[in-house]
Amino acid sequence: MGMRVSSTAGTSQSGAAAWQQRQQDFQALAQALKTNDLTGAKAAYASLTGSGSSSASSNPNSPLAQLGQALQNGDLGAAQQAFSALRSGHHHSGTASNLPAPAAPTATSGNNVNFVV
Q: How far apart are the first and last CA of the chain?
């Protein structure tokens, strides 16, 4: 007769941390574009998408891909327009952006413990 203990203490906390990091990256991108900081915008875009190129989206007409391409080209005006389209959710391709929406943190504390006797 053994006892097995399992815990999911870190699961919801890591999800919340990932969501929070994506929010911070998005805000950093917005701030960099607002202040015409190309280097900062490129860094925030790379952090947000996990890459430094427009390949972050499989749809080259999506605002996210257009933003990456504009940043690669050093075109802040086009990057600001693409970012505006990304924020508003409106774009010309008629398809949703491939950037997945970050999962909202759960209200639970993440300290579930299961006992099996």
A: 7
By C-alpha distance, which of 101, 64, 71 is closest to 86?
64
DSSP for 34-53, please give it.
Answer: HTT-HHHHHHHHHHHHSSSS
Q: Which residues contact 2 (CB under 8 A, 6 or more apart)?
A: none
38-73 pLDDT, tens digit per residue, is: 999 999 999 988 864 544 556 888 888 999 999 999
The domain limits of the chain are: 4-100
Q: How far is it, in rounded angstroms, from Cα 16 to Cα 92?
A: 32
pTM of the model: 0.60
